[in-house]
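Page 47, continued from p. 46.
Same chain as before, 226 aa.
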Amino acid sequence: MLVEDHERLGESLCEALKAALFTVDWVRSLEDAAAFASLNPYELVLLDLGLPDGDGLELIRTWRTGGLAIPVLVLTARGELNDRVRGLDEGADDYLVKPFELREMISRCRALLRRPGGLAAACVRLGALEVDMTTGAATFLGKPLALNRREQQLLLALVRRPGQVCSRAYLEGALYDHAADPTLNALEVSVSRLRGTLRASGLHDAIRTVRGVGYVFQGAGPHVAP
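Result:
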């Protein structure tokens, strides 16, 4: 989730995050950020501090007091040492002072997700399947998989939880932002297309359907590690 009230900056940040294969919900106030966080299991929050309805530090304080441990990357123009120290002491996980390079922001996002308890290793290997969690590129038996953007996003979401049931809500959250209006069977279509791409590369029966619940990424072909 991106919490930023500046329109042009928010648009640029969303574009950069989506280009890096993140799915982004963009809100512009503390009230909306609190509401969205109560409804969605976000993996990361990028938070401006100077918002129309208050100070972003108040939101961090509320989340930490309430036991919500979601990683928070503060994006702010407050660059003094005391400001940075206060932000980290209030519970922010990282602090980036405006103006900043978009590449650095993306790198910091990935670094936060690689911390203990995070969801994104730099590279995931499941038997003969190797997935670069930074670029979305994947190989099977050393050969590149011809994945489109949507297939990359879906595969990344599945391999983060190998052997576990990935619910429809989790997968839809990985593929579509809050403003999207996917059709009723959009997720099924995406899964079917990913299965087809994997099958064409020799990776059969990797995704199992759990009816009424979601999907499980259960294997990477005949060379799956025990």
